[in-house]
Design brief:
Layout (H helix, E strand, L loop, with lengths): L1 E5 L19 H19 L4 E5 L10 H17 L5 E4 L24 E4 L4 E5 L4 E6 L20 E7 L16 H4 L6 E5 L5 E4 L2 E3 L19 E6 L4 E6 L5 E8 L5 H13 L7 E9 L1 H4 L4 H10 L2 E8 L8 H6 L19 H11 L8 H15 L1
Parallel strand pairs: 1-2, 2-3, 3-4, 6-7, 7-8, 8-10, 13-14, 14-15
Antiparallel strand pairs: 1-11, 5-6, 9-10, 11-12
Helix pairs in contact: 1-2, 8-9
Bound molecules: manganese (II) ion.
Manganese (II) ion (MN) binds next to loops.
Length: about 375
């Protein structure tokens, strides 16, 4: 049996200020376009089954433009497939906090052949294919430790669908890491994983399809990595990763401002931006160890030009830090001892606790109803009390 496995489409994601000629946020349009491409490519492969493993929508209440188009495209695909099975499980982004609220995915459940799992852990049967599909949507993670996660020996094909992060997958803290022991098992014909935005095979029969566009909280770490979906054959246990075209995302080589004059820094900014085609791309340029006088010497015209050329040009300035983190006795006994300006062995400035918190909170995947800026500020308030 052949399966097209799509995940983390994040329809309704918006970023930056660029609008399309029809007044739609450009990134919202991009994300929708990626979904359209993924469906089109999947359709060409004529899979027996399509799986979408969560975060089809970026939010609990997605914008109407994305919602209407998602419905339209899925309906069209299902019409062409004569209503062949398609399973969607809910991810954390589209799952309402309150259990009384209905998940928006239920709307798509009215399209012929589409089945939605948006509550707790649930077994679906696809009689035409002899499939037993055990679905673990975001809400199912709460009861996971007390549920038997087992294939059905009577089913011809056993599938496990999960929206969650397996333990050890990322160095960052995860709200509810999923035990590998519970999930990974060779007896499943396929384990379709969602929530992690990078295409990653974790076992011969278990794969994160990754996202179809750059929509995570730290897109810079994903820059240069392909986006797409997985085509899996349960008979041969072989798979193919099919790429989906996306908006270009570039994380340019950082500039070290130490021992550079402002004109030299400007020259490096220009050279790095010209090292590839940043036209309509999403671009980050980091500059480390910048001094205030260098900062005021940055070429405003050059930066305006780059910002106009790219869809989003983000100049990420990391200022040179004063000696505030240097151990006191060092500073008192010999002003020249130790490291200059609080730099450690590698020359990277040490972060204060507040800076560490901000770095961490900027990347941490938050529940959809938590405002990132508010959370960061609250943490800063608490930490400044201690300091
Ligand atoms: Mn996601």
């Amino acid at each position: 049996m052949r399966i097209a496995h799509i995940s983390d489409v994040h329809l309704g994601y918006r970023a930056y200020s660029r609008l399309t000629s029809r007044g739609i946020n450009q990134r919202e349009q991009d994300v929708l376009q990626a979904f359209r491409h993924a469906l089109q490519l999947a359709l060409e492969q004529q899979p027996d089954l399509i799986l979408i493993t969560g975060d089809l929508f970026h939010s609990v209440r997605p914008p109407n433009f994305s919602l209407v188009n998602a419905y339209r495209w899925l309906s069209k695909v299902q019409q062409e497939r004569n209503g062949a099975p398609l399973i969607i499980i809910a991810g954390n982004h589209e799952t309402p906090r309150s259990t009384e609220s209905i998940c928006i995915l239920r709307l798509l459940g009215h399209i012929p052949g589409v089945q939605v799992a948006d509550g707790g852990i649930e077994s679906l049967r696809l009689d035409t294919l002899g499939v037993h599909a055990l679905c673990i949507p975001a809400r199912g993670l709460y009861t996971l430790p007390t549920t038997r996660i087992e294939p059905d020996p009577k089913a011809k094909v056993n599938l496990l669908l999960l929206h969650g992060i397996l333990e050890g997958l990322t160095p960052y803290a995860v709200e509810r890491p999923v035990s590998r022991q519970l999930i990974l098992n060779d007896d499943w014909d396929y384990i379709a994983l969602g929530d992690w935005h990078l295409y990653t095979q974790v076992a011969p029969n278990a794969i994160y399809a990754g996202a179809t566009e750059f929509t995570s909280t730290n897109i810079w770490e994903e820059a240069g990595k392909p986006k797409g979906f997985v085509l899996y054959d349960t008979d041969t246990r072989q798979h193919q990763f099919l790429k989906v075209p996306t908006r270009a995302v570039y994380d340019l080589l950082p500039i070290d401002a130490r021992e550079l004059t402002a004109p030299e820094i400007n020259e490096q900014i220009r050279a790095r931006a010209e090292s590839l085609d940043i036209t309509n791309a999403v671009v980050r340029q980091r500059i480390y160890h910048l001094m205030p006088e260098q900062r005021s010497g940055l070429d405003g015209n050059l930066l305006r030009e780059l910002r106009a050329r790219a869809l989003h040009y983000y100049l990420d300035l990391r200022m040179y830090r004063e000696a505030r983190t240097m151990p006191k006795q060092n500073a008192l006994s010999d002003p020249n001892a130790g490291n200059p300006a609080g730099a450690d062995e590698e020359g990277e400035p040490r972060l204060t606790l507040i800076e560490e918190w901000c770095e961490f909170a900027r990347r941490y995947e938050l529940p959809p109803d938590v405002e990132r800026d508010e959370l960061i500020n609250l943490g800063v308030q608490y930490l400044s009390k201690i300091e």
